[in-house]
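Contributing new records

If you add data, match the layout below exactly. Sequence lines come first and carry their own label; structure lines follow with theirs. Keep one chain per record. Anything else will be rejected by the validation script.
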Amino acid sequence: MTPSIAQPTLPADWRDLVALTKPRVMSLVVFTGLCGLLAAPVSLPPVLGFTAILCIALGAGAAGALNQWYEADLDAKMRRTANRPLPARRMDRQSALHFGVGLSVFSVVLMDLATNHLAALLLAVSILFYVLVYTVWLKRRTAQNIVIGGAAGAFPPLIGWVAATGRIELLPVLLFAIIFLWTPPHFWALSLFVKSDYAAANVPMLPVVAGIQNTRLQILLYSLTVAVAAVAPWAFSLTGAIYGIAAAVLSIVFLALAVAVFANRASEPSGMKPERRLFAFSILYLFALFAALVLDRWMAA
């Protein structure tokens, strides 16, 4: 159990509940889940398709709420998270726990009723992986937290595909691999220019325990694996030229930004413009890559 924080002095409202779900993170989760569903060779009825994506969103929100419940003490020590509902004392931890657990159960049960058992199982695994493996086990113990824990965020396209088809196939597994490999350079770029936050909270992120230059090298190495994974669906003839060309161009830009990060020698946040550029582009990269996948599949239909 994490150390408790001060009891709330302000009443929580609906905005605090929304903030618990990490809506910015959820937007990418929902989008990749939607793309996995739309890229599948089987079309769900619109109502069931909407319900499946809603379940993915609710599951992601539940995981975010449980993450903030467990990490309230860490969030209170970091400037970028200090205004979240729990460290800002707008909500008590028990309410956050009940909200997260209730949302988790509801999302999994609804997914099972609306689609199939396998999709519901994968959704449950993704929530438990993020909460128990990443948040509880890895986050405070190892610099590899984001490497292993990144699997939690890689589930949505696989869940979307399985919700439509009821089975796991090679293409959604490759989509899982893309996000899994993308997560470390994405978060390490962020951790470089907020290193002091993680150090203050005693979180063993890679820049804190291995140094800035080692982190930049790891970003470059992982970016190479992201590029390989991104073009793999085209290489295996699972997609057409639209996706293949988009994946190649986007990956070249991603690699160029990663090289700029590796070449940077600044040690202060003010000098980390390459890191900020890579972090910002990495989000656009994933959105554009998955959008190209859906467009490619639709054009081939």
